[in-house]
Write a structure and sequence with these properties.
single chain; alpha+beta; 4-stranded antiparallel beta sheet; two-stranded antiparallel sheet
Length: 330
Amino acid sequence: MEVYSIDESFLDLSGFRGRDLSAYGQTIRVRILRWLGLPVCVGIGATKTVAKLANHIAKKDPAFDGVCELPTLSPEAQHRRFAELPVGAVWGVGRQIVARLAQMKIKTVEDLRQADPEWIRSRVSVVLARTVQELNGTSCLALEETVPAKQQIMASRSFGCAIHALEGLREAVATHMTRAAEKLRGQHYEAAAVTVMIRTSPFRPDEPQYQRTVTVPLPVPTSDTGALITAALAVLRPIYRPGYTYQKAGVMLSELTPAGCYPSGLFDDTVQIERRHAVMAAMDAINQRWGRGTVQPSVNGTDQAWWMRRGRLSPAYTTSWQGLPIVLAH
């Protein structure tokens, strides 16, 4: 299985020869609906690109009842289905490529499938040439069973109310960095670079516009919240400009390395470093047990009037006792 995104996975069914794959797809749908309450569709194809198309067909055509196994359709039926789909339905074909293909008289999935891969490679890209091969049943995209290592961790939010003063931005940046550092430690990484971003609202063109994003390296990789906040606030101060209405701030941690892989410096206070590790571990344990933000740095502030509006936040029925609905019987 390859977990492609938060709501999508690819399964290798090559070991299921002789089984009714459509029935197996229905079993998947029923079980996910029963266990998680989530309606899903299943697409089955010879390649990942065809499976994505089959999933698209299963969503759009009620006749498939949520499961489309394209290989069971006759070649004529497959060609007809592909001829009905716009080329933009193909995985990885965006608007710019759609416009370019339209100039080449390629407007449907079937048009693209019938195209010569070498001609597509010379006119568009090698990636789209592989897509053509995938549409014709030649697998060019292997299943990625191992999740690739993260390259960045980002935390950012739009403000619930406008910020003008530096102090409000300091609180926001420190709060975002606290959250990013928690994620960093949870994934057992350390960061060697910090990025800070601030900007005004692009949806208010009548107001003065300003945005800055600055990245700085750290002396040594770290996951210490205090050290990361100090670095982020040192970046924020010179990029802040008074007189602007700020709408968003964010931070990013990059150049990630596994925790403990970077050698200690000759003059590092190893005792102090171990103490900070213990403090971070205790803070994470408390916040995990009693809720995020139970213990946090004082620079994060207590009021946080800038925090994003959450008046329509979905109830946490499955993760919080307080979110469970209460039924009163008379």
